[in-house]
Amino acid sequence: MDLGAVIRIAMRAMARNKMRTALTMLGIIIGVAAVIATIGISEGASEQMKQTIANQGASRLFIHSGWVMVGGVRSGGGATPRLNVADARAIERDVKLVRLVSPEVHSNAPLVYQNRNWPSRVQGVGPEYFEIRLWPTVSGGVFGEDEVERAADVCVIGQTIADNLFPDEDPIGKTIRVKSVPMTVIGVLSAKGRSLDGSDQDETVLAPYTTVQKKLAGIDYVHAIQVSAINDNATAAAQEQIEAVLRERHRIRPGQEDDFMVRNMSDITDMINRTGDVMTLLLASVASVSLIVGGIGIMNIMLVSVTERTREIGIRLAIGATESDVLRQFLAEAVILSLLGGAAGILAGVASVVGFAQILRWPSALSASALGLAVVFSAGTGIFFGFYPARQAAKLDPIEALRFE
Questions:
Q1: Of 8, 66, 166, 399, which alpha carbon lies 20 to 30 A from 345's?
Q2: Residue 358 neighbours by CB distance under 10 Å
Q3: Rounded Cα gap, residues 21 and 17, in angstroms
Q4: pLDDT of 133-157, one tens digit each?
């Protein structure tokens, strides 16, 4: 019996009992849709995280003071004034894999404009900071080295600050009071959204680090140093060179613990990728249980079908059909049920992924390999769970089958 005839007979057999066929397919539809939806949503979440990191600068390194023993007490990271502007200049001068360097100082300060006020954190940075963070302005401009040298009273504000202090007017050229220091707004930053820790990146005020040091924080050291490597692939080597330079400057002997910490955005990206892969595998494994349940449903219905069509099987065997023909016939019905259910499940799964992406406002990431895997799994489910009923049908004795009522 040729393949075309097998498929036609299988389709006629399924059409005779449309409701049962639809309910049998439903298990496969739910299983395939669940697998695709979980993989797609997980990949979308990973892609969103990657975009967030790229938005912050994938080649960026962040240096801050580390753990230090003071009087037998272990201080927290960033709690000791171990970094200074000279460290930043040494990194810029001696580390060849570094492209940009910016000191960073911060101070909590209320912002006041006319009768409006907003609590915020003012960051003192260098002009290179804007390029390191890939953070352009949507209006106005940024300060330069001249403003840093003069400790000028100028600032660049984020979108959240602009929306709350200047809801109905252009902030450029206006003066806001930061603590007791009047600062002129010279630029408004483009929107960045949430950071990895969930904080609002747009709720920020950036001023020359010298201004924050001298007029707001009253310190002569820096809290952190922002660095950009020459490219994304050079961050690990740049980190090693930075650590070597700082260990030498801070006179840290071999075996002693560093009094600083260097965070590499590439390491964070790798960690997120590994975590995303594990979560995708875990969620897909849980969702595949639905596919197994659907396969069991196919086996159950096919066994019922064999019982109902015992006399038909006996007639076919009696007029010359071989065991192989009967086996192929019932196996084809199981595979067609799985493939039709798989196709509908793929459509439902893709629709779910797109819907979630629209609701959560992140990329809808679904690879072609995931769709191909869904097709293979649905066909495999039909073969695996349909083989036993098909084998039972092929092994029927023709004489006993003809006597069956």
A1: 8
A2: 10
A3: 6
A4: 889 999 999 999 999 999 999 999 9
